[in-house]
Specification:
Radius of gyration: 22 Å
Number of domains: 2
Structural class: alpha+beta
Length: 276
Amino acid sequence: MFDKFQSRLNLKGKVETQTAIRVGAGRSTAVVGSDLPVVRDAAGAPYIPGSSFKGVLRSYIESILRSFTKDINVVCNPTNNDEQCIKREKLKKLRDKRDDNKWNDDKYTAKLLSKTCWVCQLFGSLWYASKLQIRDLYVEEDQWFGQYQHRDGVAIDRDTETSVTGHLYDFEVVPAGTPFEFQAIVDNAKDWQLGMLYLGISAFEKGDLTIGGASSRGLGVIKLSLNAADYINRKKIMEYLTEDYTGEKANWDAWVQAFKDKVKTQLEEIDAQTDG
């Protein structure tokens, strides 16, 4: 599916922390410093891993899809082999059929995609590369002045509901108001897939999603502001490569409608199978 250029959507913007956030780097072994520091880049500044942002985005879209169907061909559970849209055994059978019947790559890919759920087709899986790339979100240098905050924590005994002696700790957070650069690329996505992606993007724009740990304590609220959403199709590839052409504006309305149409068709097919 990636052997030729079909389209590209470039997203650029800024993520600003609405509350303090904590994307942890594990327990510190340093003699001096926080017990639980946040992740830092090579220069010592905090950043949000692209994988963390993408994971929240994927989980949110999965939850939306599960709200109207449990069809494993629409949304699966990639962390559980028994609930994956293509189990390891099924994947092996497909590969054996490919080899026995000498399928070409196009036929094998078509067979594979017909069994792959909607979310895995966009976000990727063990057998299929992701169409969505989210770069690590680095702090805007001219807006970062080395600010960190430290919060205290204490372990609680679940039986007595009191603090556990000797289990006081502290953890590090990045303060509210810290801006991070956002960049994402979507290659060769269909219109309905871009519409599905918008479900998550719009939630980040509204500030409805959290990232990192301790969100139950009020941490992790972020808000995305898109500065550019440029779409390049294959007819404009040469202009994109050789000229100062950034693409046309994203047609979110049309893409969202394409996704709604696909959902409607899928639900009608499920109802027909149930009635049958």
